Amino acid sequence: MAYPRVIPNYDLYGDQASPEWSDSFNFEWIPQRSQPYNWVIHPHRHDTFLQLLYLSTGQVDFLLDDAHWQGLAPCLIVVPCGHVHGFRFSHDVNGPVVTASQRMLESVAGVAMPELLPTIRKPRLISWQDDMRYVDQLMPLFQTLEQESRAHAPGHVAVSTSLLLALMVQVHRIVEVLDAGGNAPHQPISRQARQIEKFRSLVDRHYRQQKSLQAYASQMGMTPGQLSRLCREALDMSGLDVINARVLHEAQRELVYTHMPIKQLAAELGYGDDAYFSRFFRKHTGLSPSAFRAQALAQLHRQHQSTPPAH
């Protein structure tokens, strides 16, 4: 499976990427998305979404960054955001796929269980033979997530977040058991991907401090030019774009999901002058913070009104 000349960025394969501030998740079964494409999902990436694919039957040949792997059911594939991936499934494949906001999961895990963060951020192929313990641990959570995704009941975001966190905790436990037994899961991750992961982790920790690209590059042991080249090769973004995108993502989420005044939000994000923050925000979104908030809340309201009641 070869890379296309331009790596598409999707929310779900074939769909346009959802807004950066979205905390949504999606549940579907592998054939739903892959069968219409003749069981081949070409290389693409999700800039903000984590994917979990559990194969209950069949097999898959897949590309993850620059590594080729094969998964034979039962197995679980973890694809964090930003990693280029593509799949070629056998025609008898089945199993659930969960796509969720990685930032949202990391925010909750950072408070509830910080040791879970590496499990969320590292791509993995987790295989087990006929040990049904792992199926018994994972499938009830997948099934409950499916029910929640169909119901659209009050508290949908809170319940789905809790279930997603519980699912990642089970994955973490399985990894620990396999590690202890000398059967460590494959981690198909290239040197470039490790460097990008390190940079993103640094940005996650320090984006509120308005650190310069030079400061991040020094922590990475490289020059700003080298760091930007790395980001362009892996993400088609400059290093400064990555930093700004993280600040914007947090600003957009706070504007949509909280009532925080814009002056306070600017201070939280390291801006001493809220007018400077507003200029930064408008430059990258085309809207003032207050106009963005009004537009996004109106969009959420329309989505809520168009959602059919649960049956």
UniProtKB/TrEMBL annotation:
Residues 197-295 form the HTH araC/xylS-type domain. Pfam families: AraC_binding (PF02311), HTH_18 (PF12833). One of its GO terms (molecular function) is sequence-specific DNA binding. The keyword Transcription regulation applies. Keywords: Activator, DNA-binding, Transcription, Transcription regulation. This is AraC family transcriptional regulator. It comes from Malikia granosa. The lineage of its organism: Bacteria, Pseudomonadati, Pseudomonadota, Betaproteobacteria, Burkholderiales.
